[in-house]
Each structure stands twice: as C-alpha cells, then as structure tokens.
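Lab channel / #folding
Pinned by the channel admin:
"Please post every new chain as: sequence first, then the structure tokens as a reply. Keep commentary short and put observations after the output so the thread stays searchable."

First post following the new format, from NK:
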Amino acid sequence: MCGDDAIPEKADLTETQWARSLGLPSRRTDRPALPRRTLLASMVAGATLAALPGRAVAGPALADGPGKFPLPAGVGRDGALSVLITGDAGTGEAAQYAVAAAARQICAAEDVRLAVGLGDNIYENGPESDHDSEFATKFEQPNTGIDVPWLMVLGNHDCSGIIPGSGGDPSRGDREVAYAATSPRWYMPSRYYSVAVPAAPGGATPLVEFFALDTNPVASTVTQTDSYYKWDGPYMREQRRWLDDALSRSQARWKVVLGHHPYLNNGQHGNAGRYDGFLVGHYTRGIHLKELYEEVVCGRADLILSGHDHTLQVLEPTAAGRGTRQIVCGAAGKTGDGQAHGSTPARWQDFSQHGFMIAKVTETQVTLNAYTVDVGTSRATLAHTSSVRPLRVTAA
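Reply from TO:
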C-alpha cells in the first residue's frame, strides 16, 4: 500500500476479513476483469505476442505499432541515452500535473528519449476497463509533450481489490496491458517484459536492457485468494523462470530491473521482508519479494528502480544486494512524511518533496539527476547528481 492508506492490523488477512473488520462491503461491484488470456497481438506491428499476459517478449523483438512513439534507436545529442524516471504519479491532481510540466521542460532540454512509470499509474483503485477515462486524465493529459515510449509497471493501486491499494486483485492489471494497444505512450506488452535499447542493429550489444516486473502477487497487503496469483502459484513461478532466463541471456551493457515495490527503502514502507513493520506473513511483509530480488536479481542487475514509497532515494548497495543499487522514485503524485524510517546508507534522499529523476546512460556510467518540484510554480530544481559505474556481473 502507499503511505496515506490504511495498514491491516494483522499480517496476511484476506480482503474479506480486512473489509469486515473495517465494516466495508465484502464484494466489489466492478466490471469483470479482462480474461487472463488476453489477446495482445494487435499491440505491435510485425510481432506475434503470446496470449498469456505473463509470457514476455524481449524488447528487440517488438516492432512499434502504428501511431506508437518509437523505442530509441540511438543515443541523444550528448552521446547518452536519457531516460525520465517517475513513479506513483496517477492522481490526476495538481501535483501530478505540476511534476509532469516540470519534467516536460527538463526532458526537452536533456533530449529524453524514453520514460519509466514505476506503478500506481491510476489511483486509487486502478482502471475499471481498458478504456477508462482515467487513462486520459491521469496519464495522457498530464504527460502531453513528453512524447516518448513510457515503460510501465503495475503497482498495488493498479491491482486493488476490495480495499484501495491492497494489490488484492492482480487480474485487474490486464486492463493496463490492454490499454497499451490504443496509447502512443503507454508501453506494456505484457504484465512483465523486457526491453533492450537502443535497438541493436547487426547484432550489436544493446546499451541497456530493462526488465519490468509485476511485484504485486508477492507484495500485496492481503493474502492472494486466486491460486494462480499466490506467492508460489503458477504466475509467480513462470515470472521467476522468465526473469532468471532473461537476465542470463541479456548481453546489454547495463541491466535495470523495474518493480513497483522496492528491495531497499528508507521511507515509511521499509525494506522488502519487513514492509510496514511486519515481521510475519507471506504477503504483508513482502518476504517472497525479498527472496526474488536476492536470489535472482541481486549481483546480476546494476540497478533496481522502484516507486511505492512517495520519496526520492539514491541508496548505496549492501552486502546482501551484491552490488546492485536500489533507486526509489515515487514522488510524482504524492509525497512522504518528511522523515527517514530506515538506515540503509544513501548517497541522497528526500522524504518530503515531489519530484522525478533523469538517468543519462553511457557505456561507462549512469548519471542520475534527481529533481524536486515546486508544485505552485511547476518548477524543477536539480537537487542531486550521482554517477554510478556498471556492476561486474557475477555468474548466474
């Protein structure tokens, strides 16, 4: 869940149990979720996508569909691939529009060619269909002028069940996958997927590959009751196998994992494995997400980019993380409480202001520029700059 939401009094309640404790109705009246086997082939031209939402296709194999902003085919004017990083944006309120306006100016100046949306794309309950008007008011309209592909991941609010932000109904994420067929910006060919850019002509090594995850089934606030989405169910087993294989096969200079829920986090939610202070529970504390990160990602990917906490953090790697660095960037629509709640060493962190980041990627380093935004003036201020070197990837 996010910082201004309720937290269950006990770990791993079902949504019905939690709703009953709050005196809420135990059933939703939403439209039915899209079928699990949603046809995605119309999303891109010249590529055949698997119908299973969890069956990812690597980025270089995906052609851009008609009307889609194309994936970058090269670096920018300054020799770097510049990427906008935002998270937890989709409120439709003044702060989101102010952050987007500030980002639009920086994107133009920095020749940004790609953007990342780190989940909680449509507050508070996620979209009601793949043509919900909230896609316009909470994504397209604020981001007008940032005319690049946005690599999107699913957040807990995008997969709300009875309780907003619970992550208790992962199937609702299918609506955001389907929406990508009609948006020039929104890039989500599957619930999890990889994209390598720039597209590698003649077998050249890609500069960076992004691995977009669906972290909800192993970090929901409530117990998953659909056996398909249980922490050890078919969906997560398939996603884990895919991620392990995709990281092993990647030849990119930089490997970047995108997941809404962070591995490390000094904000209110805390680290995976003890989210929101819980020390028990498969879901509520995120223990199995911690295992996924540490067993499959850490030591193999250079960066983990996450939202969920409404803060801006550039954290230092830990021994358990084996050199992989966590970046938290979830302040595009909401802000934190102004206080640090964790003790992971950080290069820089801000717990009270709105903002976004720009990553400038070259063969030798990634420069992270963190911007805070004054909502009243829609003005961005460069608050921090860090340069990081690529991880010397360990054997799989």
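NK: The chain is about 15% helix and 20% strand.
TO: also worth noting, The first strand starts at residue 81 and ends at 86.
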